[in-house]
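If your schedule permits, I should be very grateful for your opinion on a structural question. I would ask you to consider whether the tokens describe a fold that such a sequence might reasonably adopt. Thank you for your consideration; the sequence and its tokens are set out here.
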Amino acid sequence: MTIVEDQIGALGDGRGVAVFTLENARGDRARIMSYGGTVISLEVPDRAGERDDVVLGFDDLAGYLAGEGYLGALIGRYGNRIAGARFVLDGAVHQLAANDGPNHLHGGCAGFDKVNWSATPRATPAGPALELDYASKHGEEGYPGNLSARVVYTLTDDGTLRIDYAATTDRDTIVNLTHHSYWNLAGHGAGTIVDHRLQLDAERFAAVGPGLIPTGELRPVAGTPFDFRTATAIGARIDGDDDQLRIASGYDHSFAIDGAAGELRRAARVLEPTTGRVLEVLTTEPAIQVYSGNFLVGARGKAGAIYHRRTGFCLETQHYPDSPNQPAFPTTTLRAGAAYRSTTVYRFLVQ
């Protein structure tokens, strides 16, 4: 295994931004940036053994500083949306930054995707790893508590990108960390992802209303365009006559993962038929957000690639959107002195 550190540029205050290239024993390579804890690229083999970069991203720091689409970033303190940019915890109202109309999205105006994390490379028995640390101050984006967050990426020798999340706080708060890579298993610049075949281990999904805020209903997938219990092309029903598809302009919904939250189990499997690349997602989280890249608007990415609508998909393991305002959803409250822990594995195979 190897870990190589380079500089990709500097922020306005002069702080340098580092990029770490992790290469495992089988030759997979991941480039991860300290700014945003961002996965810039990930090269994995197809059925012929040819490697390609399967993550959408930018060639330089400027692309990420422009804040286009959260490509490859760590998301926090709260992944996804919070209605009205507010929540009540133990009787106290907390007003958050409103950065998605009236709502709060992905941690606010300056969430964890815009943080230059402290980065430490590690050699582990499983493969090369990168430890990222950030101390989020009380009141940042409106959140209570000083939160110490740690995220460890490990590129294992058996072909997985493992993400271990941990956090502690000095006063009660809410936490919902996730990862926001856009995947295209044919290669980051290969065009649409609508022919990728998606399978979800999920019998229910969270219905949404205006602003993509959950209604609180976990609706059965059976008989709907949201039934991916058997492998189905992402684009097979994406423009169908369905109120949920119309609201989101496609898929942008949380699915309830089968099995017990807290246990590492499979949530999703995706096959790209032409290359044979397979992505399996395992997680300890209760839900997975499936986003079909509906709002990509022609950003210029790596090597001149243009990322149009539906040229990448996201599989964001997390708690449900707006959980602090939805009593029926699993809690995202982290109590002072308690430990937040979560694990997600992106496993790459060939078929």
Remarks:
- The longest strand covers residues 339-350.
- The chain has a mean pLDDT of 97.
